[in-house]
Design brief:
Layout (H helix, E strand, L loop, with lengths): L3 E10 L2 E11 L4 E5 L6 H9 L6 E6 L2 E2 L10 E4 L11 H6 L10 H14 L15 H14 L4 E5 L7 H18 L2 E6 L2 H7 L2 E6 L2 E6 L1 H6 L4 H6 L6 E4 L1 E3 L2 E3 L7 E2 L10 E5 L5 E3 L6 E6 L4 E3 L2 E8 L2 E7 L10 E5 L6 E4 L2 E3 L2
Helix pairs in contact: 3-4, 4-5
């Protein structure tokens, strides 16, 4: 296994900066996800890790070894792409074994042992002698994963491998990825725009926007303690509510707050200030209670997996509320919202402000 160090790496294409001075590291044996919307730079960063692109500036180190300008074949890296490249005239077993055929350090017995292990881990033993063209897209991608990990490279890179797989097969693939990570303990970097995949698979997630890493931490930390408005919005379905707020006389005043909150030391008026809270953390009640504010039911509730997603309006501000029961008022009626102060987060100019 090997850790990965990205040492102030920048990648420019003419006047466009795809990756902007990223400095971070992935621990050995860790499953790390690069998560973000299309165009945020995650695939460009992945391509630099694989050797398919060269940084404009900065260094990349694998296990302390500078690989910045090494060719892909010299990096001891396995890679799984969106579209798996297979040999249709070979069986599943032969496709998995192929990268090891020319490795003199891998004996025939060891090669067979690795192939058998991968067939079991990925639950594709019944397909071992089938030809690639007879497989579904999901099973082809499993074979691609098997071929990449059977080499026992120090590092395995996954570039959105479930993008072209139908929903049911995607769930099986994600389960297979988790088994691979748990059993083989290779250092894995996984690129995705799907937050469910990232939250399910990753030991830690690197959230990207505009070529930068905004936050890198465990999935539950990114969800519960976002350091930016973008992080609060991007993670969650739906994302966090952001309600306009003001700082006045050392207090935070906002339509969602029944009582102003103390402002953090040193935070004065000025700048764009918002209060953030997740839709499932807002309580909705029928009658006024201590700490509640009145709101108007702006949209009919939508039932999703036993919960109800509703939009409400406080003045000109629209909020999303996700509750376990139906709203206690008809459309256009008045409900009352309670935002627990321990769940409220403060943001200034898009960045989290803490005490």
């Amino acid at each position: 296994m090997a850790d990965i160090v990205i040492d102030h790496v920048t990648k420019r294409f003419a006047d466009f900066t795809a990756v902007d001075d990223i400095a971070m590291s992935f621990a050995d044996g860790e499953v790390a996800c690069l998560l973000g919307p299309s165009g945020c730079g995650k695939t460009t960063l992945m391509r630099m890790l694989s050797g398919l692109e060269t940084p404009t500036s900065g260094r990349i180190l694998f296990g302390g070894r500078n690989v910045t300008r090494l060719a892909p074949r010299k990096r001891n890296v396995g890679m799984v792409f969106q579209y798996p490249v297979m040999y249709p005239t070979l069986s599943v077993r032969e496709n998995i074994a192929l990268p090891m055929l020319y490795d003199r350090q891998v004996s025939a017995a060891e090669r067979e042992r690795r192939v058998e292990e991968v067939l079991d881990v990925l639950d594709i033993r019944p397909l071992a002698d089938a030809f690639i063209e007879s497989l579904s897209a999901g099973n082809r991608q499993k074979v691609a994963v098997g071929r990449a990990v059977a080499r026992q490279s120090e590092i395995v890179l996954f570039d959105e491998p479930t993008t072209n797989v139908e929903v049911n097969a995607k769930l099986h693939l994600i389960r297979a990825f988790k088994l691979v990570a748990q059993r083989l303990k290779q250092t894995i970097v996984y690129v995705t725009h799907d937050q469910t995949e990232a939250m399910t698979l990753a030991d830690r997630i690197a959230l990207m926007q505009a070529g930068r890493i905004l936050q890198y931490d465990r999935p539950q930390v990114l969800y519960n303690e976002p350091t930016s408005e973008f992080g609060g919005w991007f993670l969650g379905n739906p994302g966090m509510n952001f309600v306009p707020a003001e700082v006045a006389d050392g207090k935070i005043v906002s339509p969602i707050l029944a009582t102003p909150l103390p402002a953090p030391a040193g935070l004065g008026p000025g700048g764009k200030t918002t209060v953030g809270i997740r839709p499932e953390q807002v309580r909705m009640v029928a009658k006024p209670q201590q700490g509640s504010v009145a709101a108007v039911l702006a949209e009919q509730a939508i039932g999703i997996a036993g919960r109800y997603l509703t939009k409400v309006r406080i003045g000109d501000t629209v909020l999303k509320v996700n509750t376990e029961s139906r709203p206690p008022a008809p459309l256009g009626g008045t409900v009352h919202l309670i935002a627990p102060t321990e769940r409220v987060m403060l943001f200034r100019d898009g960045q989290r402000v803490t005490a």
